[in-house]
Amino acid sequence: MPNRLSDTEFVPEIRIDRAGRREPSWKDRGPAQPAPWAADAQDGMLYVHAHAGRRGFEIDANVGTDDDPDWRTILAPRRFFGHVLTANRHFLAASGAAPRRPLLMLCCHAGNPDYGHALHAAEVLHSEGLRHDVYATVAQNWIEKTEPRES
Fold this sequence. Notes:
Helices cover 19% and strands 25% of the residues. With 151 residues, the chain is an alpha/beta fold. The longest helix has 11 residues, at 117-127.
């Protein structure tokens, strides 16, 4: 996809309401800044999207069959999430097609050093021979559609 601003920049935000509300409010804390992975992303990025929190990644898995699906949310803490990725044929195809692109785990809190989820998942990826530099968000992140900027 062309013009993915997240390949090269991010907008820092701050929560402006009480913690614990179901739908928090956020406010930009400043202008867009160069992303830490921007220099590595000259040819684009690979993205992994999942929910993550204190206990690990939350992923939807079909525990039924293709004909009779039974979707459940399962907890995938630390290294287990790396094993889920390396067992996913779509992830492996994307990784194989772009082996030098950095990987961004767009998963709230995945990179939080107190939890270690992204670090341990990346260890599994690397032990399986995938050599992507892995980046992860350390706090809450929000994705929203924006209109293209004028050049």
